[in-house]
Amino acid sequence: MGYTVFSRFYDAAMRSYSWCSRFLPGILNPSGVPSGGGTLLELGCGTGRVLELLSNDFSSLHGIDISPEMLEIAGKRLPEAELHLLDMRSFTLGQQFSAVICVFDTINHLTSFEEWKKTFRTARAHLIPGGIFLLDINTPRRLQRLSLLPPFLTEMEGGGLVLMDIQEVSSNDFHFDVQIFESLGEELFRRHREVIHEHTVDPERVFAELKNLFTSATVYDEDFNLAEGARQFAESSNGRMFFVCCN
Ligand SMILES: C[S@@+](CC[C@H](N)C(=O)[O-])C[C@H]1O[C@@H](n2cnc3c(N)ncnc32)[C@H](O)[C@@H]1O
């Protein structure tokens, strides 16, 4: 899955969560999740950054992830959270939640739309009636745009560099070629490399599937403006898109 080595550097490399901290807490409460009282499940919770961000808004935090290395870091960050080593495509926790979220391109890690749809059905099965499923996707246009740019270079907290090169493999499949230069001091670096595969799907197909599965579904652009109507929907597909679905 591509996080065996990257997990150790993930938090230092992903320094800013401003992409979601501005609106994630705000969206879940007005959507009907009782303020401070609801239960939250994150699919692909990684090192627990998003769960931590939402920890004041929910009475209990739950996360699943397929990477034991990422989960271990999440466990240290959030000792109070219930974390499970599970595959989001098919799992049963025997519990239903006020909100289930799957964010920061996590769904794009699944390599076919069949697997995405399976995950949507599994998410719904874990929601209380009226519960919220929040999903974001890296759209085909966003990934194509990123693949045309030169590699991104990020300085890690505490030293070292991350070089991320996004490469188009086919119109719906991309590789995030991640090279990590771990600082060993005195201008010496150890190089690590991991390739993360991301699959993307036409957002119209995603929206149609979610509308079919849930009582309601709403789309937002990456600045969290409502993408109502064909023109706004098309414009918002240039960036990351958010879907808020009510069970
Ligand atoms: C880009 S990271 C995002 C982590 C976290 N949501 C965040 O925002 O920091 C994607 C995460 O999805 C996890 N993942 C990928 N495929 C998965 C699967 N089939 N089931 C559960 N987790 C998965 C990876 O291990 C990784 O931790």
Rg over alpha carbons: 18 Å
Strand content: 25-35%
* Assembly status: single chain
Contiguous runs where pLDDT drops below 50 for at least 5 residues = none
CATH architecture of the largest domain: 3-Layer(aba) Sandwich
Would you count the extended β strands for me?
Answer: 11
* Class inferred from helices and paired strands: alpha/beta
CATH class of the largest domain: Alpha Beta
The number of helical runs is 9
**Sheet of most strands:** 7 strands, mixed
List the strand order in the largest sheet: 3-2-1-4-5-11-10
Provide the residue-averaged pLDDT: 92
In helices, the fraction of residues equals 25-40%
CATH homologous superfamily (4th level) name of the largest domain: Vaccinia Virus protein VP39
SSE order: HHHEHEHEEHEHEEEEHEHE
Structure notes:
With 247 residues, the protein is an alpha/beta fold. The chain folds into two domains: 7-139 and 202-246, Rossmann fold (3-Layer(aba) Sandwich); 141-199, N-terminal domain of TfIIb. It has nine helices and eleven strands. It has helices at residues 7-13, 18-21, 24-28, 49-53, 68-77, 113-125, 140-148, 203-213, 229-236, and strands at 38-43, 58-65, 82-85, 97-102, 127-137, 152-155, 161-170, 173-185, 188-199, 216-220, 241-246. The strands form two sheets. A seven-stranded mixed beta sheet has the order 3-2-1-4-5-11-10. The radius of gyration is 18 Å and the shape is globular. The protein starts with 6 loop residues before the first helix and ends with a strand. The mean pLDDT is 92. S-adenosylmethionine (SAM) binds at residues 1, 3, 44-46, 49-50, 64-67, 70, 87-89, 103-106, 109.
